[in-house]
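FYI - complex with zinc ion, inputs then prediction.
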Amino acid sequence: MLTVKQIPVLNDNYIYLIVDEKTQTSACVDPAISEPVIETLEKENLSLDFILNTHHHFDHVGANIELKKKYSCKIIGNEKDSKRIPGIDIKLNEGDFFDIGKSKCKIFDVSGHTKGHIAFYFMEENLIFCGDTLFSFGCGRLFEGSPAQMVQSLLKIRSLPDHTKVYCAHEYTLNNANFALSLDPFNEKLKKKVTEIESKRSRNIPTIPCNLGDEKNFNPFLMFDNKDYLKRIGLNDLNDEESFKIIREMKDNF
Ligand SMILES: [Zn+2]
């Protein structure tokens, strides 16, 4: 069994501390800063065995070296991005497996936001750490990759079961959901979702992890091939990449 502790840091980042309960093996996903991680580890009486990095951005790898010095933990990242992941020890690729104690995760290459972005999918527990690829009601900006690449990456995540829990790296949900509603303003189910999110955020409750089934129904960036949806939001006769690209551009200007 894997437990996940969610640590909100900076403006809107989440760091995750995951623990394989059987073996007490621990890993930290995308440590932006070190102090809250150290605090949580000390409170839980744990050491740190691994750091899992989804991509090279500073708000995901900022504490790599400091935590490695303190705990001698091994740093795991994408082989293709090994020059940009500080202190990387274990280099993984699409389709590789890695064990955190008895919990097995599979690596997906989900490039688009950056060129070397990966996600960690824990199959048995059905949860995915996807960094800045898929957000609740949104997706990462395309800093390095192409729309076609991001579409392929999002399809990999979308192919997972509906009950998959999505642990993305930012709390952007309310802004994303308002964007989704601006595209599809008469969608009553979506309106209800936005109200629920507003209520949670007004009480400072995280909206993450989110449920992949909901994302499949409401996230504009997973509906680039849904003809009914595209018609509703005024996009016709475009291929998947073109639809995705336009929705991404609209969000960039929202
Ligand atoms: Zn990023």
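The pocket of zinc ion is lined by residues 55, 57, 113, 132 (CB under 6 Å). The chain has a mean pLDDT of 97.
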